[in-house]
Fold this protein.
Amino acid sequence: MTNIFSKLNYTKKKELYFERDMSPDKSKKLKKSIKENIDGVHSYLYDCDDIITRDFYMGQTPKHQMSLMFIDGMVDKDTLQNDILKPLMIFTRQFPLEYSVGENFFNMVKEGLLTAGDLKESDNFGEVILGILSGDTVLFLDKVEKALVISTRGWEKRGVQEPSTEAVIRGPRDGFTETYRTNVALVRRRLKDPNLKVKTIKLGRHTRTDVGIMFIQGVAKPSIVDEVLKRLNTVDTSSVLESGYIEQMIEGDWLSPFPQLRRTERPDVVAASLVEGNVAIICDNTPFALLAPATLLSLFQSPEDYYERWYIVSMIRILRFMAAFFAFTFPALYIAMTTFHPGMLPTDLALSIAAAREGVPFSAVLEALIMVSSLEVLREAGVRLPGPIGQTIGIVGGLVVGEAAVRAGIVSPIMVIVVAVNAISSFAIPNYSVAIGFRLLTFILIALASVAGLYGIMLGLLGLTIHLVTLKSFGAHFLSPFVSFRWSESKDTIIRGPIPSMEIRPGYTRPEDLDRINDRRHDTIDKAGDESADE
Amino acid sequence: MNRYKKLWICLLLSMVAMVGCWDMTEIDRRLFVGSVGIDTSDEINKYTFHFSLPIAREIIGGEGGGGGGGGKAVATVSTVGNSIVDGARNLALRLNRDLFFEHMRVIVIGEDVARGDLKKVINPLIRLTEFNRRSRIAICEGEARKVMEVNPWTEKLKAEYLETVLASTGLSGKFAELDLGDFLRNLHSQKGDALVSKMAANKTQVSIGGAAVIKDFRLVGWLDEEETQGANFFLGKITGGDIVVEDPQGNGTVTFIILGEKSRLSLKAKEPIPEFSLDVYVAGNIASTTHGIILSLEDAEKLQGIVSKEITAQISKGVKKLKEIYKVDVLKLSDHLYKHEPELWRKYEESWGDVYPNVKIDIKVHTTVKNIGVIR
Amino acid sequence: MLTNNDLITVPQTVVLIITTILEIGLLSLPRDVAIYANSDGWIVVIIGGVLTFVGSLVLSTLVRRFPNDTFIEYSQKVIGKVPAFFLGIVLIIYFTLASCIVIRTFAEVINAFMLQKTPREFIIITQMLLTVYLIRHGIEPTARIAEILFPILIIPIFAMYLIAIPKADFTELLPFLNTPVKAMAMGSLNTMFSFFGIEILLMLGPYMRSPERIYWTMFVSVAVSTMIYVFVVIVVFATIGVQNTKLLIWPGMTIIRTIMAPGKVFERLDALALALWTIASFTTANSFFLTGALTFTHLTRAREFKFFITILFPWIYLFASIPPNVLVTEKLVYMVKIGSITVGILIPLIILVLSIILKKRSGAA
């Protein structure tokens, strides 16, 4: 394989993002002889037994060779047979021979014979081979220096199902799948706006994954779009198997415990964010789309927040923020209050904690660390195991082990409560990555609390605040709208105002047109949309 | 590299974290002091301290409490020392845990200690932050030890029992309710004069009622319950309690429950010596009558007059004792002069000790019956 | 020098100045004014605030006159390079000492009320590390932090003091205006020390987005700080008593020991209150440390400003660790506060007067 790699063009960051296909490069043109072309393809794709070459002939006496090349299992057999093979093998027999030579016949086939929907010409090996690898079918004709790349992509895929990580009670049930085109279509279906732009690039030297950037022109801030494109362009990696690869390669501060891109499985979330001026990155082979820029607030939002009535949502959001606070401070607060400032606790509580701790061999800090880590292990074990067993582990771990540990006097019952509250709180955060980030902070705060009590916790919180305030996600403040606060933006923060009152889009993306409601620019489009709906 | 620097700092901090923990003490290694009683001791300049220490495992019985049910919930230990801090340190020779004062609720001072200099005793209570400024303070008749040995049956915790007894002003105005913070404030703004609750004890319960009169940081005498109520009326501190008076018809008694009270002191005459007038506004309900029934408005008005008279008598009694016998200005007359008539106060500042016993106070009580219950 | 987009808006400037003024000294302010003026202490605070505003006019006028220069540059234009260089050094020493005493006083309070055995050095160094972590990001993030932390600091503190109000006896504020004029004047001058912090304006001029609104900015800053001070002084007087206040080193903290959280959630609030005061001390130390490093940068015309943070770090730590106990610290605090009047009002006044006489302006240079 080394010789193939040696052929790869490793010059980095030279080309533009839209043409980053490097092996084999596009300068290698197709030859006139079909045999040379087929051999040429095979010289790249040798030892690939899943490549199928279908040779056939046209005309009676001077037979002209044609060849189809595709990968078994990646092409849609129906299209291949009905729209390519059938017209080519049956109808061409009726043509006079003069058509069957060179350019003329090539154009005939392209324009008049093939009934497949999507095809394009190519004159180099680069495109041809990429096409074959992507599931397209390539048609070579003899004596033509070009080939036809016919889109026949079709493979076994999962249908559109309800997203499992972002379940809602009220809201659409469709979620992204592993297929790029399906995902883009799911978004496009929700935004019938000519300004919705999709730009596709290929990332990963081996995977050549399709990665699409979606945004609404005139709503998304151009600088953010440029920034996303620029950063994607610098990605030079061997593989992109999931959007997580992209996320980690393009985020600004990789030391931060917080994700600087939002991930979602839901097309409605993507559509809503696009309208708010975000940029979506949709990646092939994964149902997870990325949204930039992310703010702390947006990571705390659930799509349902906009579907339910605003009182309920406001209450839930307040609870969510309180839960988030406890998710990373609760064990630390417990340690600080019991070991440093028992004067803060009400006397009765202090006495009952003291009584519960009597006989526990470990210090409170160690106890907390043991419990928090074992909880993390339980959580991880629960995720790995298949559904029903996972639940069993939860019950066994949570109830049996916890109860037994308390009875054996290894941990105090109050510590079990503390850790349980801490864990439950963290699951109230809608975004899993953020929740895990917060739980990571638990450990740091426990350490700080064990050194200097509440002062230590305060140091930790101040450090966290500094980090959050200085953190930026694609040029937007991570903490916006709380930094440079404006009252007009307060309606969609910790509370969520009634939808008619949310007149402008969030300022962090600083969209070019701020009106969310009374959006005059869209009036004409709406009319057009109505007409099409009548049809 | 810039980014690795952050990591190094994090590492450094976590190393500090491992070295640290200077102030950490596990909660079960502390002994919470619930209340303290202070008595004199045989040694000169030393006091005996009685600490009541709740025992956590006995209080929270828990499921395995069958065996430990017989244990005492509160232990009392005594020690001798120059100050409360010294006493606590002496205890370290005998106990394996740290005494922890932040939950201390009650300070009971023995009569002998109070008759000596209170300044010495309360100094550490102000200086160190560990002492709770919301601790209640009381002076007991005889030795504080007796109070500390009481075994209350209403509460498991002795401190809680003592504290709630001392906080029950809503039930009665017959003692002087105050916490350490108020006590210190009174002492300092009135040059060492204050009224403190008086406490007495038998085996199972304590009784409060009356007040200890402190003059220049020393106990000079007692007020009985009525006098204390009178003084409280004067200061406008009554929030509850009752007054029993004779029936308007004259053939039984009526119990009058006090709901609230307001008092207003004003200066009536400046020369030759200051003359004050006090208006007291009392509102309350009629709780019971032994014989007569209130039938008419006149009866109610008459009753109001009788109650007013009774309260006036109580106030006069208290004021007279404080003014003429003890000569202690806990009625805040000097404070009133200082605050409202600073010019006049400058004149009397030096000689106030002589002027005060002769000051005249004109007392007017205005009583309102708010509610007579559901029968007439 | 810092990048050009490192500019702060008017609200950010206001909050930055308020949080710089508000520091742990607020805890001892009631005692200072009680000693000078007894129950008239709160009037003294108001007069002190007014005097401070008048004093700040000098600074504001300088900012208006030289909107593109810091003190270092305009003093060079007015009095020449060599004297200005020495003034710059004085400024650096002042800002260094100012952040020292803020951090040190805070460590002192923490040691008294919260962590008795924790070494003071640990408290000092952790505070400083946090400060360095922030100010390395520049002026705008520092102002942004102040903007975010200000409500987080002020709302709970207000709430805690409000809990004390049912215990308060407002007759403690009487007699009204019963203090000799001389004592009042002395008290007012002394309160001006509590407003130290406005002198950061010496260095902020070119970093403000709208220097033309400087008068308004200063008015709001000083007015809000004065209101907070008066509120605290009144509540402390009414709750602890004027006479008792005089005895306490940090009456603002003692008051929190006399209250109880509603609903008995917490038995005592002092640890919580102190954790909050960390913010106040932190924001003040930030501003001084930052201005110190800025002064250094402008003085040496260097490009890299983070370097000077590293240079100042050991000095601040050293000076903050020198005083052996709280009494020495208080003396140092007093000296620095006198310095604040010199640096914040007297020196700028001289420069202003000279610049008017010599008709120097920003544009003329």
The mean pLDDT of chain C is 86. The interface with chain B takes residues 39, 112-113, 115-119, 122, 126, 129, 133, 171-172, 174-175, 178, 240-244, 247, 254, 257-258, 260, 267-268, 270 of chain C (CB under 8 Å).
